[in-house]
Amino acid sequence: MRAAIQQEIGQDKLEVVDDVEAVGFGPGKVRIRIRATGLCHSDLSAMSGVLPQPAPFVPGHEGAGEIVEVGEGVTNVKAGDRVLVCWLPACGACASCKRGQTHLCIAGFLNAGTPNYRRPGGDVFGFAGTGTFAEEVVVDALCAVPIPDDVPYEIAALIGCGVTTGIGAAINTAKVAAGSSVAVIGCGGVGISVIQGARALGAAEIVAIDPVEGRREAALRFGATEGIAPDGLADAKNRITAGEGFDYVFEVVGKSATARTAYENTRRGGTLCIVGAGAMDDNLQINMFELFFDEKRILPSLYGGGDVLRSYERVIKLWRAGRIDLEGLITHRVRLEEVNDAIDQMRTGEALRTCISI
C-alpha cells in the first residue's frame, strides 16, 4: 500500500512509496482505511527532531476513515464503522485515568516505540503510535472513535487533534470567562481553534498575533476582534488593557521566546496557557520574585486539557449548532502524492490546515 515516509530525522521532504504493509493486527487491534488526514505542525516538529520520534516513520496523527477489520475482543467498533483516530487514547486503568485526568494517560505514548509498518528493508514506525499518512493503519481499538454519519471525514480528522487541542485549551484548561480580554500568539489551525473557543465562551476582546498577514486576516473571520503583527502587541496591550495586560494569553507556537512574551503580556493574576509543543532543550526562564509577586497562573494544555471523548462530542455539537466553523479551517486540499506541497504551505504560513485525501 501507499504511505509517505520520512527516512531520517531532519529531512525536509517525505517520500511517497507503495511497498508498505501495516503490521501488528491481532487481539484488541483494529485496521483502519484512512480517508482523510490533516497536516499538523507537530508532524513537522517530529520531522525536524523537535519532538522525539524514532525513524523511519510515517507522519500523521490527525486522521479519519473506516474500520476494515477488528481483532479478537474488540467491542467498541465493528467493520464498516466511520471513525476518527485518537492518538492519545485513555487506558482507563492507570493512575491518571483513575484521577479523571485521562488526557495525561501515557499508554498511547508507549505505542510510539512499536513499529506500525513494515517495508522490504525493515520496520517503520507511525508518528505518535499512529501514522495516518498511509492508506491503512493498525492501532489499538481505543484509538478508533466512532463518528456520526453527518460528520465528513476531513472534518473528523481535524477534530482528532488540532481543533480539540485549541478549543479545549480555551474551555477546559483556561476556562475563559465571559467579558474577558484574550490574546493568542500563533494563529495557525490550533490558534484559530483557541480563538473560536474563546469566542464561544464570550470573551470581549480577542487579539490574534501572528507574523503572517493572511493568518491575521483569517483570525478575524473566526472571531478575533483584532489581528496584529508581533511588533504591535505592546500597543494593543496599552490600548485594550491600559497597560495592565490581558486576562488570558495563549502561546500556540511552542518556543520559549514567545512563551516569555506571553508571560509579560498577561496581567497580574491572569492566566498564561501554553498550547504549543516545544523542544526538550528550550527552557523558559521566569525569576522567582515575579513568579511569586505577579501570581500569574501558568497552565500547560495537552490535547485540550480534558477528556478527549467528551471534547470530541462537544466540538461536534458546537459545529452542528453553527457556533464554530470547521470547514473554513481547511484552506488547502491535496492528494497523498502532493504531501510535500502541504508541508511547504504550512512552513510558509500559507495554510491554516491542509486536508490530505488518501
Task: Provide a brief overview of the structure.
With 358 residues, the protein is α/β, with parallel strands linked by helices.
Percent in helix: 25-40%
SS strand fraction: 25-35%
Uncertain ranges: none
How far apart the termini lie comes to 11 Å
Radius of gyration: 20 Å
The biggest sheet amounts to:
7 strands, mixed
The residue-averaged pLDDT reads 96
Characterize the structure shown.
The protein has helices at 41-48, 95-98, 107-110, 153-159, 162-174, 189-200, 213-221, 233-241, 256-264, 288-294, 308-320, 339-348; strands spanning 3-5, 15-17, 21-22, 29-38, 57-58, 62-70, 82-85, 117-119, 122-126, 136-140, 144-146, 181-185, 205-209, 226-228, 246-251, 266-274, 297-300, 330-335, 353-357. It is α/β, with parallel strands linked by helices. Helix 5 (162-174) packs across helix 6 and helix 5 packs across helix 11 (308-320). The protein starts with a strand and ends with a strand.
List the topology elements.
Blueprint: E1 3-5, E2 15-17, E3 21-22, E4 29-38, H1 41-48, E5 57-58, E6 62-70, E7 82-85, H2 95-98, H3 107-110, E8 117-119, E9 122-126, E10 136-140, E11 144-146, H4 153-159, H5 162-174, E12 181-185, H6 189-200, E13 205-209, H7 213-221, E14 226-228, H8 233-241, E15 246-251, H9 256-264, E16 266-274, H10 288-294, E17 297-300, H11 308-320, E18 330-335, H12 339-348, E19 353-357
Parallel strand pairs: 5-9, 12-13, 12-15, 13-14, 15-16, 16-17, 18-19
Antiparallel strand pairs: 1-2, 3-8, 4-6, 4-10, 4-19, 6-7, 7-11, 8-9
Helix pairs in contact: 5-6, 5-11
